Structures are given as C-alpha cells and as structure tokens.
Amino acid sequence: MIKLITVGKMNQKYLNEGIKYYQKQIPYKFEIIEVKDGKDEQAIKNEGEAILKQIHDSDFVIALAIKGQMFSSEEFSQKIEDTMSYHTNDIVFVIGGSYGLSNEVYERCQLLISFSKMTFPHQMMRLIFIEQLYRAFMIMKNHPYHK
User: Is the C-alpha dihedral spanning 19, 99, 65, 82 positive or negative?
Assistant: First the structure.
C-alpha cells in the first residue's frame, strides 16, 4: 500500500476534485491520512508526533522537502518501482504543513524528495504529488499519458 500523510484538512473544492480524480486512477492501493495542523510554529512538534503515530516500523518513509533530492518523472517512477520491489511493506509519503516537518519526522525518513526549489501551498502540493504518483504508474506501464 502507498500512504500519503498530510498536515491539515483539504478545504479547496477545486483541489479536492483533482485529488479525487487522480486517486481513483492510481492502479494501486492508496490512502490519504490527514493529521491536525497547528496555528503556530510550536505546533510542528504536535504535528510531528501525530505523523509518527501513523507510521509503522517497517514502512519505507519519504518526505517531500525543499532540501530533498530532485527527480524527473521517469526517475521518480523508477524510485517507486524499485522501492515496491525491495520493500514488501507500505511506502509512506509525508507532506508537512505551513511550518514544515519536525526533526523527528525527518530522522524517520529513508528519503527526502523535492519537487522544486520553490515553495508550494501544502494543499496544492497534495494534488501535484498525487498527479505525479499517477504519472509514475503510467510510466511503469509504458502508457502514453506521460507523453
């Protein structure tokens, strides 16, 4: 299973519609888990604890972070395929909230990936991530969607 743990509720209808569309298209068991967001920088500790409660010891954890490694869509697809081949347990992606992720969450991750050097709203990043996950599966299948 692939899980996406995100901080905060999705409150933008247009983003929600896009997320639901791609979520239905992903040809693999996929779950989105939302954890409560905080209103100040101190909340990062509580958000981190809530994220870590959703992760099992055997999960392969990847955080989306500006300081992470950048991949092309093809490289991202290959990374997911390799991870699915070598790790029989869940792959967990994490998108932090407005204040980022706690050090404890970063320390738990096996990989940090970046979609850009730019900062995106975390709700929009959820849609961008899910579309790229769908694209990764289409690349694995040599489906023309990617072109």
Answer: negative
pLDDT in tens, 2-21: 999 999 988 899 999 999 99
Distance from C-alpha of 25 to C-alpha of 138, rounded to nearest angstrom:
10
**How many whole angstroms separate alpha carbon 98 and alpha carbon 7?**
8
Which residue segments constitute the domains of the chain, with CATH numbers given? 2-146 (3.40.1280.10)
> Is 126:19 a contact under the CB 8 Å cutoff?
yes
Q: What are the phi and psi torsion angles at 71 (to 5°)?
A: -130, 150
**What's the order of all strands across the beta sheet hosting 60-70?**
30-35, 2-7, 91-95, 60-70, 111-114
Q: Using CA of residue 5, residue 114, residue 59, residue 29, what is the dihedral sign?
A: positive
Phi, psi (degrees; rounded to nearest 5) at 32: -110, 130
Q: How many CB atoms lie within 10 A of CB 30?
A: 20
pTM score above 0.90? yes
Task: Supply angle C-alpha 58, 1, 66, rounded to 5.
Answer: 75
